[in-house]
Fold these 3 entries.
Entry 1:
Amino acid sequence: MAAITITEQNFEQHTNKGIVLIDFWAAWCGPCRGFAPVFEAAALRHPDVTFGKVDVDAQPGLAAAFQISSIPTLMIMRDGVLLAAQPGAMPAAKIDAILTKVRGLDMAEVLRNVKPELAVTRPAAVGGR
């Protein structure tokens, strides 16, 4: 499945269930453009994962809510919980390894250990709790 465009309006719809890998990017960013084919290829290899792209210029509220200060930045979420964020382009093998680890997580255990204020599906800046 190809990557989808994530906006403030559809963020919760696409991130509240399952595994989601989000690429924060911009059209003017050379490393972002170079990473795009790697991200798209990973989306095809992992049809069980939602791959989303957030254009930081078109969605400054999302970029601000997640304190994106460097692009590309990749975020991994599962069932509405932000698990990690990593600035910089990532090689295909690392994406595959991260997704393998996230698939193996016991989310009941994760949710027992996460601080309640972190277990939100949307940051407050985009209408979250």
Note: The two ends are 30 Å apart (CA to CA).
Entry 2:
Amino acid sequence: MSRGKRYEERKLNLKKVFAVILAFVVVIMSIFIIKGILTKDKEQVKITSKDYAVVFQDNKWGVIDSSGNIVIDPSYGEMITIPNSKNDVFLCIYDVNYETGEYKTKALNSKNEEIFTQYEQIEALSNKDVNHQAWYEENILRVKKDSKYGMINLSGKELVPCQYDNMVAMEGVKNTIKVTKDGKVGVIDNEGKEILGVQYIDITNLGKDNKNGFIIKKEDGKNGIVDYSNQTILEAKYDEIVKEIYGNDMYVVKQGGKQILVKKDGTEVLNTGYDEIKGILKNVENGVIFVKGGKYGVMKTSGEVTIPAEYEELKEAKSGVLMAKQNGKYGVIDLQKATKVEPNYKAISYNEKADLYIAEKEDFSNDIIDHTFAVRQSGILVDSDDEKEYIELKQGEEYKYYNFKFEEKSTLEVRTSNNLFKSKKDGKYGFVDKDGKVIVDYQYDDATEQNSFGYAGIKKDGKWGSIDNKGNVVQEPTYHLDDYLKVDFIGRWHLGKDINMNYYNQL
């Protein structure tokens, strides 16, 4: 048996108070957690998607569909994994030895039939991003037979025969699998195609996707960079390659414990005047962000310091613009040190597609700042969707949508897949259809928009319940949820209170 770990996805929690914690909450859940962590007398549901979800009831795990119907009875002591919510492939762990970490696995379908029985072990390939938000590689499974690992798709088709000593997802990179055999590693994609042959001591990703290439380590312990076609970008002669710090055909390497900026032909560009290089600016003439004496500054590739090391943090937003931290607060400056946004904020992030800055205040509300550094809107940021190009803000007691040009949009324009829309009249909430026809009378004190499962929350006399996508009451308002971070229903199941665990329960 082998030791396994599972990660629980973190969901950004917002409500009426909207603790906008975003990337700061790290939720990584191991299979070896103490059994008591998941103890609750009440029924709880772990939602993974709108098609199939994992249910936790009476300290046992099972599976439900998006209507709340039980698909797999809650009878497993460990959380069931659903790699792809649109496929009825459910991975169960059982006979866990918490002392040794050994366990058994099996796969079930929606008929509760065991599938893929020819394998000793069947697992999803878990992955996580820089913020430790987890996901599973959706359409592939790692399988084990005769103590060797291979890969199948969710239909059971063999993509890679069981021939490897290990197989793991490359952290932070989708569809890129690192395989190990006889002490050497290589890389394959999610279709089983070989990207890098099994010939290196180690392989890590250079950037946030596989298009930027891979850092490889050879038998002599030296590191270099190769691209997706295994062509050499940077010769393997360095003690270390610093991940995710590259640009303009330059890379940060380590030799003899010191960071050096080099071109891809190995020519040294910078090797003195700093303790550490933190970033390569987009415009090659602007140089690098460096740290000296614990403070951040900017220097050109010639070594000329253009911004002295006097900031607590610097990060490039776009060419010529830096987010800067001074005296514990964030603002925005340019490369001439001119202040563009006063350092008055708890945090600042930059949305490249929208070309706007999201500045967070101490009370968790936000200023939305445009490319001219003018505050265009303020409120509590509820959602930001780059694909649909909108942001949602809670302004006072109202929820409003704006496109990236700061034009206000209606709920109908933004939530195009919904068939019901929250509406307010005479201080009461109801729901209308796309034509504005009232489907649910104006009788509730508060309400939520319809979620991706088709349900919406309704509040009356201080208590919450839910309606379905036809406006029928599924759960009468009986739940006291005023101190919950988000009001969200799936049928009669409500999103749990614990910000670190994305579960649903019935109170």
Note: DSSP finds one helix and 48 strands in the chain.
Entry 3:
Amino acid sequence: MNEMSFQHYLLGLFAVANNVAAIPLYISLIQGRTEKEQHKICRTATLASFITMITSLFAGLAVLNFFEISIPAFRIAGGLLLLSTGFNMMNSVQKAMEMAEQTFSKIISTAIIPIAIPMTTGAGTMSTIILFSESARHQPYLQFSLMGAIGIMTVIIYITFYYAPKIVSYLGSTGLDVLTKIFGLITLALGIQFILTGISGAFPKIL
């Protein structure tokens, strides 16, 4: 993961922290709700995603050090996780989701789990940010670039949720499925790169 830049960080986060897969469930949550309630659901899901990303940025490496997990080992594990996430996205089939009548507090809870975590910012996102933060650890300008990428990704997540009804109406179920598969392919490629980098770090004579 050498020579990282703001564009690399943003593209990496865009691949693993997009909320495309969460849109069908999100749409089912906001149906029949007032505009004020819809906005609160949108803000809640976005805030939970932001907290997940920023916590991974500032505390992720400390957790790895506490459990004495090496960066190469975590790269390989994170890469395998991204491969799994990517395959799931590639094989996804959009299904209509019907939610039973729920209290608004229950809906807010659903906006956090599973919509924000893990459908938008799951373990793959956490792994990616931790690995990015390790590469930027001794370079302040890269740290600011990573924080900027997280900030922009948060805005993108909010806008996507906010305009989700229009996106679904415009793309249709087929278009949404194709978009999910595109992100799945990017996630697969990112996972393979993490694995190769991890192997080269653990076994420098192999690669």
Note: Confidence is low (pLDDT under 50) at residues 94-100.
